[in-house]
Design a protein that fits this description.
- The chain is an alpha+beta fold.
- It folds into 2 domains: about 5-170, Regulatory protein AraC (Jelly Rolls, Sandwich); about 180-285, Homeodomain-like (Arc Repressor Mutant, subunit A, Orthogonal Bundle).
- The chain has 11 helices and 11 strands.
- The strands form 3 sheets. A 5-stranded antiparallel sheet has the order 1-8-3-6-10, covered by helices on one side. Strands 2-7-4-5 form a 4-stranded antiparallel sheet, with helices on one face. The chain has a two-stranded antiparallel ribbon with strand order 9-11.
- Strand 4 and strand 5 (about 50-55) form a beta hairpin.
- Helix 2 packs antiparallel against helix 4 and helix 8 (about 230-245) packs across helix 11 (about 280-285).
- It starts with a helix and ends with a helix.
- Residues about 135-145 have low confidence and may be disordered.
């Protein structure tokens, strides 16, 4: 049952210490890597998974890979940050098999672990703090470089695993199987999450898997419990909810950003899944 954890590999991309101000204000952030923050002073907010996290001193925060998120600092904040890749030998994301918490108090040992990671990996910080300037760049450096000793590589991976482990709650109640069909569905779930603003249909998703649409739909429901269109609508409306609560975009702009450009259809789907209109949702959940 724990084969994905037994084969878990973590690879450091970036680590640094940042002093941030009001310019740390970014939306529509979807990174292909995971992030860890240790807050040292000041306050800010991060929004993801339909939650608002008020970043607090001496607390740790996890943002999983391929997660839509929003950042905002109204004054000043100082933090350690770590960007890393997580891989499993069974070809499935650890986030698809386990439930995670995203905020917790940092122990004294964990705070020392960030300092140690920074000592082991100097000059791995980001030049720019804007995710749009580095998410698509070649930041996924090969950690096992000639300039890094074997001891430092192993110690870095061990410290990262210790920090990461503290966020794991336990198994998901409904896991996608680890076989070849399960892997295809995992790939499609990730593809949907990365391309919500695109024109997605059951037909073109099935074509990505080289499967008949009806068979793909049945397989998707077997593995996830819902049909592909239901999953697609749920993810789009979740993202729309976050945009409504944390940005000043118009309803049409948000509808375009989540791939439902027909504003009447967007309104209908949103109201059905949220049990309130987009305008009512924004009024009740405004967080800016």
């Amino acid at each position: 049952m724990n084969e994905s954890l037994q084969t878990l590999k973590v690879s450091l991309l970036n680590i640094g210490y940042a002093r941030l101000d009001q310019q740390w204000d970014y939306d529509n952030v979807i990174s292909p890597f995971s992030r860890l923050y240790l807050i040292k002073s000041g306050t800010a907010k991060v929004y993801h998974h339909q939650q608002v996290f008020d970043l607090k001193k001496d607390h740790l925060y996890l943002i999983p890979s391929y997660t839509y998120s929003r950042y905002k600092c109204n004054s000043r904040m100082e933090q350690y940050y770590v960007h890393f890749l997580e891989e499993t030998g069974v070809g499935m994301s650890v986030y698809s098999r386990y439930d995670f918490k995203y905020e917790r108090k940092a122990s004294a040992l964990e705070q020392l672990s960030f300092e140690r990671l920074l000592t082991l990996n100097p000059q791995r910080d980001l030049v720019k703090s804007d995710p749009k300037l580095y998410d698509g760049s070649r930041i996924a450096q090969n950690f096992a470089s000639n300039r890094t000793s074997a001891k430092d590589i192993v110690e870095t991976q061990g410290l990262l695993k210790i920090l990461f482990a503290g966020f794991i709650r336990g198994h998901r109640h409904q896991n996608i199987s680890a076989g070849s069909t399960g892997k295809k569905i995992i790939d499609m779930v990730q593809y949907i999450n990365e391309h919500l603003s695109d024109e997605l249909t059951v037909q073109n998703l099935a074509a990505q898997c080289h499967l008949d649409p009806d068979y793909f739909s049945r397989l998707f429901k077997k593995e996830t419990g819902v049909r592909p269109l239901e999953y697609l609508h749920a993810r789009r409306i979740e993202r729309a909810q976050l945009l409504l609560a944390t940005t000043a975009y118009s309803l049409q702009e948000i509808a375009d950003m989540v791939g439902i450009s027909n504003i009447s259809y967007f309104h209908r789907i949103f109201t059905k899944l949220s049990q309130r209109t987009p305008a009512a949702y924004r009024k009740a959940n405004w967080n800016i």
